[in-house]
Write a structure and sequence with these properties.
Length: about 210
């Protein structure tokens, strides 16, 4: 990449998945290949339930960073004077922008890297933690990683078809919305019958952080 379009960067705690509660710098890239982010396009999008604003560069520290070193330096500055810096690259779809140069810049600064992706893009080598959240009706090219996080339910995506993919952890995350109580109960019921799966909740929404 000649530059990186970033919606926002902020220090927080990881709110989902196997690393929930961990201190992390969230690096949210602008743009996605499954939805424009505009409400008028939601009904025809490949992903219609996204709850994240990834459009533009007007969030906290949102900017176009000119190169990998500038962006990595910003992440390190936000981490502050603490050991073992950790960045979660998200979006939108971060793998539209994350490249070898950025991973190398993070590694040069001792930053552990994680990515949350929809699985339709091939990642560069060297990412420490890969979380794939597949979306029904899309072509998933990334079927390996550390955790598979399936937003539940998704007609057209059966957990039984995903359990043989090459992941260390398999998570069901109830879809947020007006039916959350029902989807949560459904996910719990499925996991009780299929213990290879675990429940992932959006803890950050419960405790009031981003």
């Amino acid at each position: 990449m000649s530059s990186y379009a970033v919606k926002e960067i902020f220090l927080t705690l990881q709110g989902e998945g196997m690393q929930v509660g961990r201190r992390a710098v969230f690096l949210r890239f602008s743009g996605c290949n499954l939805w424009t982010g505009r409400e008028q396009d939601r009904a025809t999008a490949d992903c219609r339930f996204c709850d994240t604003d990834f459009v533009g560069m007007d969030g906290d520290n949102g900017a176009r960073y000119p190169d990998a070193d500038a962006l990595a330096d910003k992440v390190v500055a936000l981490w502050g004077d603490q050991p073992d810096p950790f960045v979660v690259m998200t979006g939108g779809e971060p793998l539209l922008q994350v490249d070898d140069a950025l991973i190398a810049a993070f590694k040069a600064r001792g930053v552990e890297t994680a990515v949350e992706t929809n699985g339709t893009q091939v990642p560069p080598d060297g990412i420490d933690w890969i979380c794939v959240s597949p979306k029904a009706g899309t072509e998933i090219v990334l079927r390996r990683g550390n955790e598979l996080k399936l937003v539940w339910p998704q007609p057209g995506l059966d957990p039984r078809d995903l359990i043989d993919w090459d992941f260390d952890h398999f998570l069901l995350q109830p879809m947020d919305g007006s039916n959350l109580n029902d989807t949560r109960a459904s996910a719990i019921g499925y996991i009780l019958e299929h213990p290879a799966w675990r429940l992932s909740t959006q803890t950050h929404k419960v405790i009031g952080i981003r």
